[in-house]
Design goal:
The chain is α+β, with helices and mostly antiparallel strands. The chain has 13 helices and 21 strands. The strands form 4 sheets. Strands 5, 6, 7, 8, 9, 10, 11 and 12 form an 8-stranded mixed sheet that branches. The longest helix is centred in the middle third of the chain and has 21 residues. One of its GO terms (biological process) is methylation. It comes from Novipirellula rosea.
Length: 458
């Protein structure tokens, strides 16, 4: 999600602040006591929660938890002494750490339901840094496909890193303006997710936004940009497709008003989600809100709409010419090459399932990296080591205990009886590559993927 940032702050007396907040909320009306509580909560920091993989049992986590009410795969760490991001389970990809409010959009998408996204082609239109995209990708499992679009180039590396950590190969990353993407892929998606750039009022508690996020100018500017993005999103959808819209702000002009506009000018109907009724907006059906003073999170907004019969026809595409690669993949993998399609550059090679949509290579800049080149030498990519549940298989694996896994994740070499490239695993979960020689495995873990000071086993 992109956020409009500001560099200045303002000092306001209580009456002026209350007036500013009331104006920012617009049609959303709070009682005097609730308004006081809401304003006070904007300066309170809320602890992140963990979003687990579907196959991970919460009782197996290395800290006590309680469920997040609005999302069945979300859990709060109940130990103030535990740091979920310092656990080996996190390094091994068992869960993702994020604000509880960001799970509302996933709940509107019903991404925690086992079959909700089965065989679906999904576009996350404003995808970085990947909190929602990674959940979508994990929900797809062995079917469907995700196009994660991020127009801001500086945000793409974090997105690719997070998507690769899921171990899935059913994604690609594009870097197009939403309108340009809609022109190329009209009517190609079953689901479009728009986590829209916004005034970011929920970020006040994290000191990542200033009081000017509440200003009328900021709200108006964000609302105008959101309308343009939503116009593109509607054209990306197939008939009867689903649009999920979310923000991390409280202004009705950026939230319910955007949905009212779609309901009034397009063939959309609001989707009612029974499990989210406790969080229903008081002014627009199909809209849901979380508040920092009520729900122990930074706050968020989400809505789910179903499109009727679109007035445009879906684009059609011819099959792509096979991408030719000279990289000898069978030295690292047992994959026969008949189950993947490849694309890439002189320095990176990406592999997607053979059943991925035919248009992927037309818009993709990045994807599941399988190999990269250093100088004149091709090496297996870190992302390829992390794949799980895919048809890509490394020729050699090495299972290690907690102590050795922690040593490996710090970037140090570890004992390795095998020669050549080997994937290090902890309880069957892949961590990365070593290159074994004479009983020692040279560590090939990227710096960005290293973890230091991991918590000891409990």
């Amino acid at each position: 999600m992109s956020v409009t940032s500001t560099s200045h702050s303002e000092s306001l007396d209580d009456d002026s602040l209350h007036d500013l907040v009331r104006d920012a909320l617009g049609k959303i009306s709070l009682s005097a006591n609730e308004l006081d509580a809401f304003i006070a909560s904007l300066s309170s920091r809320h602890r992140n929660v963990v979003r687990v993989r579907r196959e991970v049992a919460p009782e197996s986590l290395p800290f006590p938890t309680t469920p997040v009410p609005w999302y069945s795969l979300g859990y709060r760490c109940e130990s103030t002494e535990s740091r979920p991001s310092k656990e080996l389970a996190y390094a091994a990809g068992d869960y993702y750490v994020q604000d509880a409010g960001s799970l509302l959009a996933l709940a509107a998408l019903q991404a925690d339901h086992p079959v909700a996204l089965k065989n679906q082609t999904v576009c996350d239109l404003c995808a970085a840094p990947g909190g929602k995209a990674t959940a979508i990708l994990e929900s797809l499992e062995s079917s469907g496909f995700l196009l994660a679009n991020e127009p801001i180039r500086s945000r793409v590396p974090a997105l690719l890193h997070n998507l690769s950590r899921t171990g899935s190969d059913r994604f690609a990353i594009s870097q197009l303006d939403p309108d340009d993407l809609a022109k190329q892929l009209t009517g190609c998606f079953d689901v479009v997710v728009v986590d829209a750039p916004c005034s970011g009022q929920a970020l006040l508690s994290r000191k990542r936004q200033s009081i000017s996020a509440l200003s009328g100018h900021q709200i108006e500017h964000s609302a105008s940009r959101q309308q343009r993005i939503l116009s593109a999103a509607t054209r990306l959808l197939r008939p009867c497709g689903k649009l999920v819209y979310s923000t991390c702000t409280f202004a009705a002009a950026e939230n319910e008003a955007q949905i009212d506009g779609l309901l009034g000018s397009h063939d959309f109907t609001a989707e009612s989600i029974p499990s989210l009724q406790p969080y229903a907006s008081p002014i627009t059906p199909g809209c849901y809100r979380l508040w920092p003073h009520q729900h122990d999170c930074a706050g968020s907004f989400a809505a789910s709409l179903i499109q009727g019969e679109a007035s445009w026809s879906a684009k059609t595409f011819r099959n792509n010419k096979p991408f030719k690669t000279t990289v000898e993949l069978d030295q690292w993998f047992t994959d026969s090459g008949q189950v993947h399609r490849y694309f890439g550059s002189d320095s990176s090679l990406y592999a997607i399932p053979i059943d991925a949509p035919v248009w992927v290579e037309r818009v993709a800049k990045l994807g599941p990296e399988i190999a990269h080149r250093t100088g004149k030498v091709w090496k297996p990519a870190h992302a390829a080591a992390l794949q799980r549940g895919t048809l890509l298989r490394s020729r050699q694996t090495l299972d290690v205990d907690h102590e050795t896994a922690a040593q490996y994740l710090s970037g140090a070499p570890i004992p390795c009886p095998s020669r050549g490239w080997t994937v290090v695993q902890y309880h069957g979960r892949p961590l990365g590559w070593v290159k074994g020689d004479r009983g020692l495995g040279k560590n090939h873990l990227p710096t960005a993927s290293r973890f230091t000071q991991l918590s000891p086993p409990r």
